User: Fold this.
Amino acid sequence: MWYEWNSEADFDNWHNHLCAELGFPIIGTNQLTGELDENAQKTINYTISFQVSDKYIAMVEDEYSDGLIATNLRPPMPEHSL
Assistant:
């Protein structure tokens, strides 16, 4: 579901707190051995925000949405889309 924040700083504060709780960055694992692969690309963000008008919006799973404001705003379509 999409949620909104009043500023980029508000989103960043929420996102940084959640990432810390979830243990980001997440280090990839070798699928063959199950061991951590320090050379694999790390997952550093839970989600990303988009500015729409004067709000910042992002997709968030329900289990992490407590206290967030649901929104009908959506990111603009890229110019090259049909």
